């Protein structure tokens, strides 16, 4: 980088300043390499342990499946998020929760971003609203059957953009895909919900 400068300006003072520039460039490069190595080593040392998620509670309100096979409903989910790591904390910068039934997405909503310290359990509350969702194929028929049986098997999917924090270092964004299936929800308000464990993919 410094060479073209020297050639186009053959004055006596220029070689000195180009040497200086070269030293500065070398120092900056060395710093970048050292910081990079430090990040890599601390990452390998404190590699995050499995993050754990489960759906702790779920309920359905205002369920209405019209004759035209349009669905109106509110779904409430309490999602437990556990960070078992003792050195790694997490930024959840965006979280999107969706509920599916037989591969059809019924509703999607965002959850408030949050910071999760190390060795922490945080509960996310997601309220998803299905409004005039047109149902296809066998979905309306099956949904009506499950409605009359009292229980419904839903799938809950969570997509989160996260960053890890180790000491003062923060990693780049990565996408977390969490799937909880099946989540059995009872239409009656009975407190009989059985926790559903989720799979995590990063
Ligand atoms: C369900 O929705 C239809 C169409 O909007 C409405 O006519 C009906 O009253 C609703 N039923 C209930 C129980 O809310
Ligand atoms: C988890 O972190 C949140 C946010 O910092 C805090 O409010 C909560 O009390 C923590 N929970 C536990 C179990 O440490
Ligand atoms: C769901 O609620 C119905 C009553 O609406 C009840 O008969 C049934 O046993 C409940 N199912 C479970 C798994 O608790």
TrEMBL record:
GO BP term, pick one: defense response to other organism
Limits of the Late embryogenesis abundant protein LEA-2 subgroup domain: 78-180
GO cellular component labels: plasma membrane; plasmodesma
Entry-linked Pfam families: LEA_2
Location(s), subcellular: Membrane
Top-level taxonomic group: Eukaryota
Topological category with respect to the lipid bilayer: Single-pass membrane protein
Predominant location category: membrane
Transmembrane segments: 20-46
Keywords: Membrane, Transmembrane, Transmembrane helix
InterPro entries membership: LEA_2 (IPR004864), NDR1-like (IPR044839)
PANTHER family reported in the protein's UniProt record: HARPIN-INDUCED PROTEIN 1 CONTAINING PROTEIN, EXPRESSED, LATE EMBRYOGENESIS ABUNDANT (LEA) HYDROXYPROLINE-RICH GLYCOPROTEIN FAMILY
The protein, known as: Late embryogenesis abundant protein
Name of the encoding gene: 11421614
């Amino acid at each position: 980088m410094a060479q073209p400068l020297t050639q186009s300006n053959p004055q006596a003072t220029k070689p000195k300043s180009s040497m200086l520039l070269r030293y500065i460039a070398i120092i900056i490069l060395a710093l970048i390499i050292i910081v990079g190595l430090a990040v890599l080593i601390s990452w390998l040392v404190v590699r995050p342990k499995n993050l754990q998620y489960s759906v702790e509670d779920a309920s359905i309100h205002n369920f209405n499946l019209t004759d035209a096979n349009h669905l109106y409903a509110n779904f409430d989910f309490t999602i437990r998020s556990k960070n078992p790591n003792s050195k790694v904390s997490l930024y959840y910068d965006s979280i999107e929760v969706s509920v599916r039934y037989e591969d059809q997405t019924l509703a999607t909503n965002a959850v408030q971003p949050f910071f999760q310290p190390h060795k922490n359990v945080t509960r996310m509350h997601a309220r998803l609203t299905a409004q005039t969702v047109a149902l296809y194929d066998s979905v309306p028929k099956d949904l009506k059957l499950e409605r009359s049986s009292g229980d419904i098997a839903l799938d809950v999917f969570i997509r989160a953009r996260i960053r890890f924090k180790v000491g003062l270092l923060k990693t780049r964004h990565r996408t977390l895909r969490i799937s909880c299936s099946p989540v059995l929800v009872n239409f009656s308000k009975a407190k009989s919900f059985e926790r559903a464990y989720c799979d995590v993919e990063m």
